[in-house]
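Lecture 7 notes: from sequence to structure.
We start with the chain below.
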Amino acid sequence: MRPHHSYPAAPVSSLYLFGRSEDFAVEHELGTVAKRDHARLWESKRSDPVTHLELWIGDAAQDNGIEVLRRHHLPIGTTHHINPNLDAERSLIVTLLRRTGMVRTVLMEPGMGRTTDGKNAGGDRFYTDGQLAVIVLNG
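Predicted structure tokens for the same chain:
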């Protein structure tokens, strides 16, 4: 697939939390195989002690480029590069979920802490305010 063509069913690579890959992954293509929004969700197998609602943990990023991976000058696969502004993707997901009418409330909680110049495993730089969006859905 060439980077400037549509690929509506592009795969989302697995990430691991709790020793397992995500339970659910979604993506939204942004016109080319190189650009997309995507999110992964893991069931924590825990519930809130007060509301007894299930707790899920998610991550999200926007891919904004693609790179062909090579070994000994031969192509072996591809990887995406991310938009460094992780908070923008979090805001997009919160906004889209609120539009569905399924959200009771959104709380912003301290998370991993402010990161002004981080790098992911692929070497892409990122920054975040470190806040977590706790999204409570309507029962």
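Points to note: The helical segments are 86-99. The first strand starts at residue 16 and ends at 17.
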